[in-house]
Amino acid sequence: MFKKILIANRGEIAVRIAKTAAQMGIETVAVYSDVDKNALHVASADQAVYIGGSVPRESYLNIERIIDAARATGAEAVHPGYGFLSENPTFAEAIEAAGLIFIGPCAKAIRAMGLKDAAKALMEQAKVPVVPGYHGPKQSNDGLLREATRIGFPLLIKAVAGGGGKGMRRVDTEAEFSRALASAKSEAQGAFANDAVLLEKFIPSPRHIEIQIFGDGESAVHMFERDCSMQRRYQKVIEEAPAPGMSDEMRAQMGKAAVRAAEAIGYKGAGTVEFIVDATEGLRPDRFWFMEMNTRLQVEHPVTEAVTGIDLVEWQLRVAAGEELPMAQDAIELSGHAFEARIYAEDPANGFMPVTGVLGHVNFPSGCRVDSAIQSGDMITPFYDPMIAKLVVYGENRSDALAKLSQVLRKTQLVGSQTNLGFLIQIAEHDDFSRGCIDTSWIDRNVQKLTSDNAPSQAVVLSAALAVLTQHTAPNRLTGFHLWHPLKKTLNLLWKGQKIDFYAELYPDRVVLVSNSSIGTEKDALTDSQRFDLEYKVSGWWFGPDLLPEAFWLGNKIWVCDTASQVFDVPDPLDWVESLGTTADIIFSPMPGLVSNVAVMAGQKVEKDATLVVLEAMKMEHVLRAPCDCIVKEVLVASGDQVEAEATLILLENLGLSLSSGHC
Ligand code: ADP
Predict the structure, then answer these.
(1) Which residues pair with residue 493 across a beta bridge?
(2) 478 Rama sector, left if φ>0, alpha if ψ -120 to 50, beta otherwise
(3) Which residues line ligand 1 (CB under 6 A)?
């Protein structure tokens, strides 16, 4: 076995590989770019080598730098992970030429599967069913159009060098064909410097089911299927194993076809054979067709690990080091059910735009496998994939596993960046998904509903309000403690520009909030004049039988982690004072300070502009005045009191206040 390997990757896959290597007593070398110098993947390895700038081509795609790093550290083999150079045959060759071992298939096998047209031709020879279509040399508009009419519509145009759905277009009618072809070709040229395309019949009710295979260079075994039909624009979102509705007969046939595909190219290492399945009449053994083979570990490999108990990275290391396949086909067993959800820093409400930013607080729950390289304080940069984590759950059966998935997603706390967590929860808890009734277009058909921008629930707003009260610290039992009388305050929040006001009375271990706003339309909406009696108990703040979700301060915003994070702005108290105008009947402290003088008593009639309270704060004297003629209803402070921001100082009858400042 190797003593030391280099991991030519970053992020969660680099961390994941280092973990297995450590368990096997193999030392690891990480490589990193400028922006990654404090990344978790660097800390997870035994050694780390800087390889260049943050742009991938200067570092993680820089073959020379990676090989130099392996040589300099004495690594014997290189694991490419996935993405970056993992399917680049030139890289595999360069590694071997440098006298190192590439932990993956040989360059020839990568090349054989690299172009979709050549791969399909090879698979036809190996008697693997391929999607009907055209993958010949003709590339002219007229020639392809003739083929398209022969195949029939709808069909797919695919870039032969394609990946990630790029250069792919669905065409429903002959009239749309030429324009779609031109746009597919230009996208393919831009992305892959190769504008060749192939045509495929569009399979109705398509399900994406793939088979994990593992070869030793001659023979291969399979580790059953993964269903990756939950996709958005041809990108996988949630994967599972086994596939819902899969019969033993179909599984055996798909497994055999995948093994034939691997053996046809003398495949060594972990690979995935992807099939498209026509599920119009459920899963049928005569309705699956080869799409492509990925000659590397897949992002979704953990679901296979969960249902087989196999560590695929361990197998990769063993086979690359020259050992035999660790298990024979009949010893590999499938048990239980697993899901993987991919959490991204992206904004589903804004067309799933990737977002960047600092994740001030990151907390993943127990009860699941978390593959992630993101920790609290880490930055999502524009340089790499915005994936934050993959959560993998396992259950005895599909419904157990799905219940766990929704639970762990709900308990995940990500503060500081928009994420797709809420979107994933909506999917995980959808009836169609729990019945296994989905196909690859299900998300696109339901996207509006899955991404609707839901107003915060009562519990979320209450939690944010408590966070305002406790000012930049986590809500705690001391909130509201006051020796003589309950502290009274008004507080206000903004949710997407919408004002939410509360009147609060604070007692030891208790807060009464009275809402002065309405928000939301569901049954959980907050309405005007609603009264909430909140109680502090050991684990946090409760409203009746419910523990309120946790809230976090980040800068001047409050994030509440519920189904998805909801963000609230906390207006500057000084702005707020001015915005209150003359309708307020509460005089409150605009900032923390010392009450240097209380000029009025309860029951006293005062004239407009009369001084009510003088406050010293920030080396300034702030005079709080009556906005017009009024009666003082209650005086809640005395001269010499230290008051917090927003503390209620005086209650007036009907009227408001004005504020003027002058130097002390
Ligand atoms: P890429 O390599 O760009 O990811 P694939 O060939 O793997 O492209 O296809 C991506 C996705 O497109 C599949 O998972 C499936 O959802 C859909 N797809 C591909 N081929 C077909 C087809 N012939 N009919 C219907 N859907 C298809």
Answers:
(1) 500
(2) alpha
(3) 131, 156, 158, 162-165, 168, 200, 202-203, 206, 208, 231, 234, 274, 276, 291-292, 440
Q: What does the block give as tokens for 26?
A: 């193999």
In this structure, the number of other CB atoms found within 10 A of the CB of residue 333 comes to 12
Residues marked active site are found at 296
Atom of ligand 1 nearest to the CA of 200: 23
Strand positions, DSSP E, 496-626? 498-507, 510-515, 531-537, 540-543, 546-547, 551-554, 557-561, 565-569, 586-588, 593-598, 605-606, 611-617, 620-625
Specify the amino acid at residue 288.
Answer: F
Indicate if the pLDDT at residue 579 is higher than 50: no
The count of C-alpha atoms lying within 13 angstroms of the C-alpha of 56, restricted to the half-sphere facing its C-beta, is 13
Structure tokens at 451: 């991404």
Instruction: Look at 12-16, 80-84, 89-93, 465-469 and tell me which has the smallest mean pLDDT.
Output: 465-469
- Residue 473's pLDDT is 44
Say how many Å lie between the CA of residue 451 and the centre of ligand 1.
23
Rounded to the nearest whole angstrom, what is the distance from the C-alpha of residue 234 to the centroid of ligand 1?
6
CB 78 within 8 A of CB 84: no
d(CA 535, CA 6): 54
DSSP assignment letter at 531: E
Domains and CATH numbers, the chain: 4-103 (3.40.50.20), 107-128+206-334 (3.30.470.20), 132-201 (3.30.1490.20), 336-453 (3.30.470.20), 458-569 (no CATH), 586-653 (2.40.50.100)
Q: Whose CA is nearest to atom 6 of ligand 1?
A: 291
Interval 607-640: pLDDT, tens: 888 999 988 766 567 788 887 788 898 898 998 8
Q: Three-class SS of residue 409? A: helix
Q: How far is CA 253 from CA 256, 287, 483, in A?
A: 5, 11, 76
* Region of residue 338 (phi > 0: left; psi between -120 and 50: alpha; otherwise: beta): beta
Specify the pLDDT at position 247: 97
Give the least confident one: 183-197, 395-409, 436-450, 479-493. Answer: 479-493
What is the pLDDT, as a whole number, of residue 581?
34
pLDDT given for residue 580 in this prediction? 37
Residue range 180-215, pLDDT digits in tens: 999 999 999 988 889 999 999 999 999 999 999 999
Phi, psi of 651, deg, nearest 5: -105, 135
The strands making up 620-625's β-sheet, listed across from edge to edge, are 642-643, 593-598, 611-617, 620-625, 658-663
Question: pLDDT value at position 455?
Answer: 82
Distance, C-alpha 200 to centroid of its chain:
32
Exposed/middle/buried for residue 354 (C-beta within 10 Å: 0-12, 13-18, 19+): middle
Q: Report pLDDT digits (tens) over 601-615.
A: 999 999 888 999 988
